[in-house]
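Entry 14. Structure prediction run on the chain below.
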Amino acid sequence: MSIIIKFFVAPDDEAAAAVVDHGPDEAFESLVFGNFDVEEAMIEWESILTGRSFEELVEADEPAVVADPGDGEGPMVLAASKILQDALAAADAPRLVEVSELWAQERAAEGEVFDQEVAGRILGDLAGLARSIGRRGGRLYCWVA
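Output returned:
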């Protein structure tokens, strides 16, 4: 379970990895969330949005680890796949509501209580961030601590 989750846009993996120790706040605008397993969530979102299976995405090593100096024991930076980034950017409001409902249901099946309204806000904010990439370039990343 991730305590602090910050999604941000960086121009490339090198720039994203450079913020691993302190987070993206000073270098990049970020969206801040907390208290869910972001790696699992990113796989579930991509699975729901694209129809690819959870297992297929795990085998493809999604999301990609860009920086993990503590080998899983400290802050790390993940890169959203281009497919997830593009699917979020393309999703309209009704689709994001549908995805948030399905994600909340998946979490409930695993014994987690995840408010569907919060899930919708997370996905809506991420979709907005993903859409902004088209105007300024870069890639969607996530810093986790």
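The first strand starts at residue 5 and ends at 10.
Filed with the rest of this week's runs.
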